[in-house]
């Protein structure tokens, strides 16, 4: 099943809809779309005849609709129904400086099937189209007009859906005026996609879910590790560094009793050698029916003390939205 979205319309297609359409009307339409306008009738700088033709062709501006909003401290999660009846979730995160980050999904479900992730445990349904990624941003803009950053850290592996993700990034840069340095693409370590991102030279930030720097443990926790061992992942990150010198974020989901000991820290240090990086320490968010444990404060403090000892630059990431299942690894898009 496909969908004809107004976000994909070309200048030539718009000009063909009505004899009254002028070249500048294409720019007008793009401005209306980028202002989160969801009604063709409200696009008053377009001729009424053109608005009627747009309604005839597309019926509605957005292919998706928000069916539920859940709020937690510093997090708002949107459940979105897509044109084919599938559901996804996206999240608005607010930090202590009142900066707002849009956390966007790239797939319905996820291919990667990471053992510790709720999204991975629901399986993969399909890739999202670029317009479905873009629409998430504008649905969130209706919740909060000022969005400072975008992270591709919602449902799915963004680099397995590279073309759609790339198209959406270009839209946010060119149509919404968002700096590439304010956009982060997260990956479970999908080597092919990291190379594509490096060659595309989009200028966005890269975050890599490391979880552990031990091949045997990583393969048990992350299916991507079975395809791409740590040696190959590191070579690819060094290649990425040769194309873009900015710092890579190594995402480290801290799981009690699994990746918190001295051996784990030594292996992080060895893996990260020669990389320009920072380690984002994210204590695992407790998910029902999964056989893992969130580390307590004592275990976290002992781990970070080891990081300091080995001169590993790190940040402890505050988890937001746990009560509403909005936090990292918790998105499942359940609908009543």
Characterization of this structure:
By secondary structure, the protein is α/β, with parallel strands linked by helices. It is 34% helix and 19% strand. It contains 11 helices and 12 strands. Helix 6 (191-200) links the parallel strand 8 and strand 9. Helix 4 (130-143) packs across helix 5 (162-174).
Tags for this entry?
two-stranded antiparallel sheet, alpha/beta, 336 residues, 11 helices, elongated, 12 strands, 19% strand, 10-stranded mixed sheet
Describe the secondary structure blueprint for this structure.
Layout lengths: L10 H7 L6 H11 L13 H11 L6 E8 L2 E7 L5 E8 L5 E4 L3 E3 L14 E4 L2 H14 L5 E4 L9 H13 L8 E5 L3 H10 L4 E5 L5 H7 L2 H4 L2 H14 L4 E7 L7 H11 L4 E7 L13 H13 L4 E3 L20
Parallel strand pairs: 4-7, 7-8, 8-9, 9-10, 10-11, 11-12
Antiparallel strand pairs: 1-2, 2-3, 3-4, 5-6
Approximate helicity band: 25-40%
Mean pLDDT: 94
Spatially, the strands of the biggest sheet line up as: 1-2-3-4-7-8-9-10-11-12
Q: What is the CA-atom radius of gyration, in angstroms?
A: 21 Å
The stretches of 5 or more residues where confidence is low (pLDDT under 50) are none
* DSSP strand tally: 12
Summarize it.
The chain is built from eleven helices and twelve strands.
């Amino acid at each position: 099943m496909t969908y004809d979205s107004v976000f994909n319309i070309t200048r030539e297609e718009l000009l063909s809809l009505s004899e009254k359409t002028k070249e500048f009307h294409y720019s007008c339409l793009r401005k209306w779309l980028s202002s989160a306008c969801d009604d063709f009738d409200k696009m008053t700088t377009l001729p009424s005849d053109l608005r009627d033709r747009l309604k005839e062709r597309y019926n509605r501006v957005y292919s998706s609709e928000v069916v539920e909003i859940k709020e937690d401290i510093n997090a708002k999660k949107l459940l979105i129904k897509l044109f084919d009846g599938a559901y996804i979730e996206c999240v608005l995160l607010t930090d202590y400086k009142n900066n707002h980050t849009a956390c966007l999904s790239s797939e319905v479900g996820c291919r990667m099937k990471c053992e510790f992730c709720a999204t991975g445990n629901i399986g993969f349904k399909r890739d999202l189209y670029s317009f479905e990624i873009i629409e998430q941003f504008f649905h969130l803009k209706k919740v909060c007009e000022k969005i400072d950053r975008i992270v591709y850290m919602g449902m799915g592996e963004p680099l397995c859906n590279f073309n759609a993700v790339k198209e959406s990034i270009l839209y946010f840069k060119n149509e919404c005026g968002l700096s590439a340095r304010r956009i982060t693409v997260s990956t479970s370590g999908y080597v092919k996609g990291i190379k594509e991102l490096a060659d595309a030279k989009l200028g966005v930030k890269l975050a890599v879910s490391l979880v552990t720097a031990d091949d045997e443990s990583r393969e048990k926790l992350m299916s991507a590790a079975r395809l791409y061992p740590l040696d190959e992942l590191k070579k690819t990150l060094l290649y990425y560094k040769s194309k873009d010198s900015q710092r890579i974020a190594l995402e480290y989901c801290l799981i009690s009793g699994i990746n918190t000991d001295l051996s784990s820290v030594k292996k992080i240090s060895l893996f990260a050698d020669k990389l320009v990086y920072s380690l984002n320490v994210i204590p695992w968010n407790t998910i029902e029916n999964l056989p893992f444990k969130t580390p307590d404060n004592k275990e976290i403090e002992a781990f970070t003390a080891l990081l300091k000892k080995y001169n590993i630059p790190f940040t402890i990431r505050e988890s937001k939205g746990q009560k509403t299942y909005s936090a990292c690894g918790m998105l499942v898009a359940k609908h009543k």
